[in-house]
Amino acid sequence: VEKSAPIAVCLPESTEQVAQIVRWCNSNQIPFTARGAGTGLSGGSLPAMGGLVVSSKRLNRILEVDVENRRLRAQAGAVNKRLSESVGTFGLHFAPDPSSQSVSTLGGNIAENAGGPHTLKYGVTSQHILEVTMVTVEGETIQLGSCVEGSWGPDFLSLIVGGEGTLGIVTEAWVRLTPLPTAILTALIAFRTVAEATISVAEIIASGAIPAALEMMDEGILKAVRLAFSLEYPQEASALLLVECDSTGEDAGIKTDREMEIVRRIAAKNHALSFEIAADAAAQAKLWTARKKSVGAMGRLAPSIVTHDGVIPRSKLPEMLAFVYEVAQLRNLGVANMFHAGDGNLHPCFYFDDRDPDQVKQVVEAGEMIARKCIDLGGSITGEHGIGVEKIDLMSLMFSEQDLELQARAKKIFNNGSLCNPCKVLPNQKSCVEHKSRSRGVSW
Ligand SMILES: Cc1cc2nc3c(=O)[nH]c(=O)nc-3n(C[C@H](O)[C@H](O)[C@H](O)COP(=O)(O)OP(=O)(O)OC[C@H]3O[C@@H](n4cnc5c(N)ncnc54)[C@H](O)[C@@H]3O)c2cc1C
Questions:
Q1: N or C: which end of the chain has fewer CB within 10 A?
Q2: Is pLDDT of 426 > 60?
Q3: How confident is the model at residue 1 (pLDDT cuts 50, 70, 90)?
């Protein structure tokens, strides 16, 4: 809901061109903001102070595939899904799989430390990045991390992954490749109530099982998904769980069956209405399309959506969802939930019309209520979408002044100025008064 236009968009094709652009911005005191596919959900690639947008659209090559050492080198603008597609024939993949993976970029995934349905078992982006090439805020080119596993050195890479593009512009990365599972079972489980589904999630994790994915969709999203993808489930269902169990190795089939049996027992105990296992790879793919494209399907419900993001302990999911529905009712907004339930990572999507300033105000306030509730329940204001501009004012709810000061000092290691992606993540940046005074959510 925040909007700001750049003065120009640059489309560099090489690290050297990015470095030239950044040096020019420094000489002319022009702010610059990196942009991948623009799918970020906290306004990270918004050019808050105008200036240049440095797009990675043409930095999109896969440069090296090293099957022997299970690693791959690509430019930052390479689309996530292409990384896995390019090594699938070798039985490998790039494990982080945000639902936006058919368009979002490696650089955007790195900047946001993106998660995804399968990161419950395989870990988020930071666990799969070995080394980055980065243009610093002054226009120098540096390498951080190491393409050789376990090499020594201070772990600066872990600041860059999740740095939301505020510490420099990543132009290339070496990523770790993971073997593809040899046995996969995907189940769609329907429940009469949201509480039965969320209690099942907490119990599955408590049982010690670690499904590859454990995703939830509620009634609001099911309306859209049923229309868009003709997904079939019992009429009286208010919630669906999409659960995938997988394994590799000789007894992969047995291990996967065993894990799915645990899921089946817990679902039955919580009165599941149906439990369907996808018959083949095509049926599995259909279920994942419905889940991963579900946000797009919401275009059928209203002109605009804001997808919120927070994390809570999984045992608090029933209480949290009840609160989300209360907030939607109070603010007179449509709401749908689809999220990585296994991680306790919540995504309430409010749908509304952003041409109506009052609806925008209600959406913004509803989001803030949800973020506060996440903190009250012992969670965090973001799980995977980052702080960006959206949650900058909420940082002080989660961190003390000393914490924020320490974060500001850590940022200064890489960015001691105000040109690189200004007005993001850390509150009270002096140069951002003008940005802050602009009204939020006006459509133009
Ligand atoms: C339908 C949908 C589903 C989604 N599902 C998920 C999900 O499952 N998991 C998840 O984590 N997120 C998800 N997202 C959010 C989003 O896709 C991710 O945050 C993604 O990593 C953003 O990538 P991008 O290329 O679009 O980056 P952008 O939105 O263009 O940019 C995001 C941030 O990265 C910075 N950036 C981009 N490129 C670079 C670079 N080369 N160097 C330095 N900084 C850079 C930008 O400045 C900005 O701060 C979803 C979004 C949508 C729309």
A1: C
A2: yes
A3: confident
386 close to 40: Cβ distance less than 8 angstroms: yes
Ligand 1 atom showing the smallest separation from residue 296 Cα: 1
Q: Which residue from 4, 59, 100 has its CB within 8 A of the most atoms of ligand 1, so it is best to mutate?
A: 100
pTM: 0.95
> Residue 301 has which token pair?
């419900």
Atom 45 of ligand 1, residue of closest alpha carbon:
165
Contact 124, 162 (CB under 8 A): no
What residues have CB less than 8 Å from 395, skipping those under 6 apart? 381, 387, 404, 425, 426, 427
Describe the crossing of helices 194-206 and 252-269 by its angle, rounded to 10 degrees.
140
CB 215 within 8 A of CB 117: yes
3-state secondary structure of 100: coil
Using only C-alpha atoms, the chain has a radius of gyration, in whole angstroms, of 22
Average pLDDT over residues 370-382: 95
Whether the CB-CB separation of 7 and 51 falls below 8 Å is answered with yes
* Residue in 103, 112, 392 to alter for ligand 1 test, most ligand atoms within 8 A of Cβ: 112
For the chain, what percent of residues have pLDDT higher than 90?
A: 81
Block residue for tokens 């907030």: 327
Residue 164 CB less than 6 A away from ligand 1:
yes
Which two structure tokens, joined as six digits, stand for 152? 């020594």
pLDDT score for 437: 54
- Residues 186-233 pLDDT 10s: 999 999 999 999 999 999 999 999 999 999 999 888 878 887 887 888
Any residues with CB less than 8 A from the CB of 128 and at least 6 apart, and which?
94, 95, 96, 122, 175, 176, 178
Give phi and psi for 415, each to the nearest 5: -140, 100
State the pLDDT confidence band at 443, using cuts at 50, 70 and 90.
very low
